[in-house]
Amino acid sequence: MYSPAWPHSKINEIFPNIFFVTGTNITHHNNVELQHSRNMIIIRDDGNLSLINTVRLDDKGLAELDALGKVKNVIRIGAFHGRDDAFYLNRYDSKLWALKEMKHANNRQTDIELVPNGQMPVTNCSLFIFETSNYPEGILHIDQEGGILITCDSIKNWVSPDQFFSTETAEMYKEQGFFGTASVSNVWKQACNVNFSDFVKLKTLTFRHLLSAHGEPLLNNAYELVSKTIKQE
């Protein structure tokens, strides 16, 4: 029913009450096994935890998580993530927040829909939607530390392969141009058929940092680097 707890890092506090953990993802595409990294972001708000872009943790990792607070929300902002949502929803009896028309594994249903200017799972949080995307995809904006963007697949920061990649996948992704700072994957863009106008709207947000489902935290100069990427699109 659940994916295994594959190897992952410790939970690291990036900003006050905002945590980051990197783990392994293994999938199969066209009979080829792909193994790469993915990140989960954890926000603590008044002792309650919200998990974004879930990554299943092992027993040691779960103990670290439990020491931070009570898991209250699971938040899904990307159509191609969510394989570990059900594990956390069942373990903690938490609420599933998701974008409109999001389809979930394990017959789960969205508890609370995420909509712009609607109810948000955490304080100082707002939602940006890729309105032209073929599949639901959004970005959370946290009004903290000068502005933090939390993305799923839309903007990655895979600068280079890390320890959670297999050698084969790392080489394949290098050849396909997957690695870069504040990058937009051509594979994702083509699958979602996102219009350039959506990215231009991103520049109206105020932010300094980017925490993506893929890659390292991009700190302090995220606005400049995301703007540079958008200009090149």
Could you describe the 3D structure shown?
- The radius of gyration is 17 Å and the shape is globular.
- It contains six helices and eleven strands.
- With 233 residues, the protein is of the alpha/beta class.
- It has a single domain, classed as Metallo-beta-lactamase, Chain A (4-Layer Sandwich).
- It has helices spanning 59-68, 85-92, 167-175, 186-192, 196-202, 222-232; strands at 12-15, 18-29, 32-45, 48-52, 70-76, 95-99, 112-114, 125-129, 138-142, 148-150, 209-211.
- InterPro entries: RibonucZ/Hydroxyglut_hydro.
Keywords:
single chain, 233 residues, Metallo-beta-lactamase, Chain A, seven-stranded mixed β-sheet, four-stranded mixed β-sheet
CATH superfamily annotation: Ribonuclease Z/Hydroxyacylglutathione hydrolase-like
**Strand/helix succession:** EEEEHEHEEEEEHHHEH
Structural category? alpha/beta
State the helix count. 6
From the N-terminal CA to the C-terminal CA, the straight-line distance is 39 Å
Largest sheet: 7 strands, mixed
What is the β-strand count?
11
Residue share in helix? 10-25%
Instruction: Tell me the name of the CATH class.
Output: Alpha Beta
Strand percentage: 25-35%
Main sheet: strand order: 1-2-3-4-5-6-7
In the CATH scheme, what's the topology name?
Metallo-beta-lactamase, Chain A
| Corresponding CATH architecture | 4-Layer Sandwich
Question: Which regions contain 5 or more consecutive residues with pLDDT less than 50?
Answer: none
C-alpha-based Rg, rounded:
17 Å
Number of domains: 1
Overall, the morphology is: globular
Mean pLDDT: 95
InterPro entries: RibonucZ/Hydroxyglut_hydro (IPR036866)
